[in-house]
Amino acid sequence: MTAFWAVLRHDLRLILRQGADGLLVLGFFVMATAMFPFAIGPDAGVLMPIAAGVLWVCALFAATLSLERLFLADYEDGTLELLALTPAPLEVLVLAKAAAHWIVTGVPLLIVAPMMGMLLNLPATAHMALFIAMLLGMPTLSLLGAVGSALVLGARRGGMLLTLLLLPLTLPVLIFGAAAVEAAQAGRPWSSEVTALGGFLIAALVLTPWAAAAALRQALD
Fold first, then answer.
1. Which of 57-61, 152-156, 157-161 has the highest mean pLDDT?
2. Are 120 and 47 in contact (CB under 8 A)?
3. pTM, to two decimals
């Protein structure tokens, strides 16, 4: 746990010092979501049915923007090799970096998403479902992204390859996240969708650190 908190604090200090990643992710999400009312029109009858899908797709693409650099800087300057030589397991370091990514990208999206939902005429009754679904879904995306980032480490055009690897893996989160919001819009129970998202998060917490650590060891060999 000492290693976890040390890496988390180190990554957060670096990210907040630069400040570009968080603003880029948030700016992309806001601009991409805001384009739909201009392209489709302000009609609530048109926007409301697609609001859940638009919010989740935009959040997914926004979260992937900074994933390529999750391990890249440490890999290029040799820090990753030093971290691999420490007594702390690489799995713990992967969890710390995924947590830092979620704090910088997922938390701002979590805060802004209900506001953008209002722009898309998402009813107030669905805002709680959107918040809880993203609270469970966005950490899963960061954990899956850690695996993808480790797999493409050192590859040419890693960002494009990462996107191709990540999108199929994130489909279950996208489907159940949007389904929870749509169920709340229709006045139906949405607990089953949220339970599924919680299950995905638990599975990702258990499996992705091992997969990402194995990919990192392969990249360092």
1. 57-61
2. yes
3. 0.86
